Each structure stands twice: as structure tokens, then as C-alpha cells.
Task: structure prediction
Amino acid sequence: MAEFPITTFSEITRLPGLAGRYVFISGSTRGIGRTIAQLFAECGSHVAVNGRNPEEVAELADTLHATYGQKTLACAGDVSRLEVVKRIFQDIARWSDGRLDVLVCNAGYPLREDLWQTPLHAMDDEKLVHGFEEVRRVDLDSARFCVREALRFMIPRGHGSIVFISSTPALAGYRGTAYTEAKAAILGLMRDVAAEYARYHIRANALALGNIQSGWYHHLNSDERAEHAKESPLGRWGTPEEVAGAVAFLASDLAGYITGQTIVVDGGRVVR
Result:
């Protein structure tokens, strides 16, 4: 079983309205998702974690419980499949007695070089159809499936916060049309949920992430990392902890009057 370290947030671990809340984070066994799960647990939330590898999911749930003492739930499964999402939320209902306060839609398709590097006019039929479908299924369909199930928890309670993880290409465009399309669609879903469910006091917001030290960052050499760092006016990469902090803020009572918004976490590269 893979071993992953636990991040310590120390002084930023108490945000109003997070202690005792029930949270589900899709795609949370590694990288940014794992760090988000850790911060919620350190803030006193009960955390349900998710990933495709049952051993990794169980390891994270056990580690969070042992480290922070909160209730945790291991929800292994592919959230791009509706039947899996329905089963996961049935498990959450039993674990939390039918309560879910926060949903973080973090599951995302891994970087696929051929889709990212091939311009649209040069794509063959397989990439144009099946490649785009794969990215959409993991990035967008999984979020839509999870949101529907979460709303059925949140509406009766008249309370909830949903945070979507998107990317700056959704705002400014970039290479990799499949990713840009899916991430932009996530923002459309977020806005619709925010507008439709505000009457139930359910908030929906999104983060558009720039260069973060996660995922594809670990496949770059030192020169490539340095070059990409220059893209940000701050002159560096963002950290998973900084992303987790933004997610926790949006889920907390400090952001109680914020809904329908996209917060850009990219060191100032995309200025709107």
C-alpha cells in the first residue's frame, strides 16, 4: 500500500462553521484532494473520502481518524459512474444519519499528453470522440452525479455548501480543448446550482486553479518547473495547502454570503 504524508496546517485549522460538519470530497486520496480532506479533518469536520483504489481510500480514512479523531468514511469507487455514486451516497447516509453539509467535487481526469498537445484541427476521430468523452465523464459527469445526490441531503436541512474544482483554461483558454471544455462546463453547472438552490440556503462556488504543485507538476524536470513558475506574477507555483485553504474558506461561515462565484487561484496570471 502506498504511503502518503499527513500535512500539518497548524495555525489555520479553525474556521467558523466547519467543526462537526459532514463533508464528502471526490478524488481525495492523493494530491490536492488529499490535502483538502486533511484540512477539513483538522478543522473538526467528519470526512468521507473517495478514490478508485480501495486500499488507498481505506488508508486515508484510517489515517485521518487516527490523526484528528473525527469520524471518517472510505468511499471507494469510480464517481464517473452513476450507479457507483448512488451506492456511495447510500453509504454516506448510513454513516452520517442522512446528513451532508459540504460537497467538494475534486475528481478529475489525469493529464493525457496526446489530448493536451494535439490541436483540434489535427485530432483523429478517436481523440475527437472518445478522448473528449473520457475527460467529460470524469470531470463533468462525476460532479453532476455527486451534486444531485448531495442536494437530496441538503435541501431538507435547508443548508449546504458545494465547491467545484475547475481550472484557469475554463476562463482564458489554453492548449487541450478537451480539458478546457470540461472545466468550463463545470463552471456552468456551478452557476446553475447556485441560482436554483439559493432558496434552500445552499451555496455553490468554484475554484479555477493555475499551476499547483500536484499531478503533472511531479512529471516535470527542474527547468520545466522553473519556466512554468514564471507564468505567475507571484513567480512561483501554488501549493495544495493554498488550494485547500480556499476550499475550506468557501465552505465555512466566513463565506456565508458568497455563492455563484469562481475564485481564481493562480498567483495572478489570469486577471479578470
Notes: The mean pLDDT is 91. The two ends are 43 Å apart (CA to CA). The beta strands are 22-25, 46-51, 72-76, 102-105, 160-167, 202-209, 262-265.
